[in-house]
Specification:
Hypothetical Protein, Haloacid Dehalogenase-like Hydrolase, Chain: A, domain 2, 12 strands, 8 helices, alpha/beta, Rossmann fold, about 230 residues
Length: about 230
């Protein structure tokens, strides 16, 4: 079993430690694949420096709250309520740097803009139009839009890791519930949507789990163990 998450590796590794998994972690929406406890990633795709700088400038001009992920640091201009919310969700405290132009010399694994869902939805479309041919633009939550290397998504990460481990893609199953899980479900041989999934994800799924109490356990028991 492998976890594929939009979270940074450090946050995901802490969660895996609690449940005893030692398998590679697909983090940053697929931008990084790294084994727990190891310093160097197995695979790491970063945002081109000029595009990261353009996103920083756009956020500064529009007063958008941008999180700049460089190494293990989550850099922000200041601690707004969005910064506190991100810290609460992930356990990772943002590093206040004052001006994100101060960190543009550090390669970014990804960038996140946080705002109200009513702002993020049209902003996602706008950023997709502006950067869509150069960056992967996706929403992992209603209040977050993420920008990453164009070669990044959970699906390409799954294909790479399966090939690296010698596992035929025909023997893979993926579970997801968010828009950024769509490439993952499309890549796997068996696509499973969780109860909270939106209609777009349900349409590409082979199976939709209805058990809202223990959806992952139900999926593993019925689809893997045959129980």
């Amino acid at each position: 079993m492998v976890i594929a998450t939009g979270r940074p590796h450090r946050s995901a590794e802490e969660i895996l430690g609690r449940i005893g998994l030692t398998t590679p972690i697909i983090s940053f929406n697929g931008a990084m694949i790294k084994k727990p406890g190891e310093a160097e990633p197995m695979r790491h795709l970063t945002v081109p420096a000029d595009l990261a700088a353009a996103a920083v400038d756009l956020a500064r001009e529009r007063s958008l709250y941008l999180l700049y992920f460089a190494g293990d640091d989550v850099c922000v201009t200041h601690m707004s309520r969005w910064g506190w919310l991100y810290w609460q969700r992930t356990g990772l405290r943002p590093l206040v740097v004052g001006d994100l132009r101060n960190v543009r010399d550090r390669l970014a694994t990804k960038l996140i803009i946080m705002d109200e869902a009513g702002t993020i939805e049209p902003l996602t479309e706008e950023l997709g139009t502006r950067f869509g041919d150069a960056l992967y633009v996706t929403r992992s939550r209603p209040d977050m839009v993420e920008l990453m290397n164009l070669g990044v998504n959970k699906g390409t990460a799954l294909r790479w890791l399966a090939d690296h481990l010698g596992v035929p893609i025909e023997q893979t199953m993926a579970l997801g519930d968010a828009p950024n899980d769509a490439p993952l479900l499309e890549a796997a041989a068996l696509a499973v949507a969780m109860p909270a999934s939106g209609e777009d994800l349900r349409r590409i799924a082979d199976v939709v789990i209805k058990d809202e109490e223990r959806p992952v356990g139900t999926a593993l028991r019925t689809l893997v163990l045959g129980g």
